[in-house]
Amino acid sequence: MTTTDEKYIIRSLASTPEERGVCGWRKTLISHDDTPVANVSHLRIDDSKKHYHREMTEFYYVLSGGGTIWLDGETREITAGDLVVIKPGTWHTSDGVMDVLILGVPAGEQTDIWFA
Fold first, then answer.
1. Cα separation of 83 and 61, whole Å?
2. Which CATH superfamily is domain 15-105 in?
3. CA 46/CA 24 separation, integer angstroms
4. Domain segments of the chain: what residues?
5. Three-state secondary structure string covering 55-69
6. More confident residue, 77 or 114
7. Hey, is 15 helix, strand or coil?
8. CA 61 – CA 49 distance, rounded (Å)
């Protein structure tokens, strides 16, 4: 279900389609089409690919599960309740069984992804 008004958007995770993304299975809740300010996605980590963003800062909040995140060659353990702020230009990928809420500022979920 999505409710849209000039002043707000209400979108249900349950009715948002899931699609394959760079880091796993993504449900895009807010995209650049909704607002250029930020994108918001629910992500199930699966076969994440190493990448970086030139302009977008990612706020990576672990909702459930855990695993590792690789940031510019350094591996860190992360678990439910952890927040990782990934600044532009930081190579990153992750591994494990986890659900993550991703906030990207500014919105760049489709256009600001760069690979080796």
1. 4
2. Jelly Rolls (2.60.120.10)
3. 4
4. 15-105
5. CCEEEEEEEEEEEEE
6. 77
7. helix
8. 18
Q: Is the peptide bond before 106 cis (omega within 30 degrees of 0)?
A: yes
- Find out whether 84 and 72 touch, Cβ atoms under 8 Å: no
Tokens representing 13 are 């995770």
Query: Using an 8 Å Cβ cutoff, are 102 and 110 in contact?
Result: no
pLDDT in tens, 38-52: 999 999 999 999 999
CB of 53 closer than 8 Å to CB of 112 = yes
What would the pLDDT profile of 62-73 be if each residue is shown by its tens digit? 999 999 999 999
With beta carbons less than 8 A apart as the criterion, state whether 49 and 96 touch. Answer: no
> What radius of gyration do the chain's Cα atoms show?
14
Q: How many helices (H) and strands (E) does the chain have?
A: 0, 9
